[in-house]
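Before the break, one more example. Copy the sequence into your notebook; we will annotate it together after we see the structure.
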Amino acid sequence: MILSSVHLKGAANTVGKAAPFATKVRLFAMGTGDGTKTQEGRLNHGGYWRDEKEWPLARTRPTPFYLQPGGGQARDDPTHRPLRQHQLRLRPARG
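Here is what the structure looks like once it is written out:
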């Protein structure tokens, strides 16, 4: 078996030296596609693989996202929104 001879016997190979394992970090970036289908019927997501040297990336800008009451996400913290004022009308109970 070739695989076992490569790993167990130390035979010369490119494992860990060639793509996709040449760098310690490999990530898939999405967001440039238009969402249509290609001629092969695949989603045009516009993504691509990118090799990086560190994690987290040095150019990372932390951006907090908060869960919203409806289940979505937003940059607005829902606990810091101004409260609405409601007028309380008391009515005498009859009985």
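The longest helix spans residues 2-8. Residues 25 and 56 are 9 Å apart (CA to CA). Try to locate both features in your own notes.
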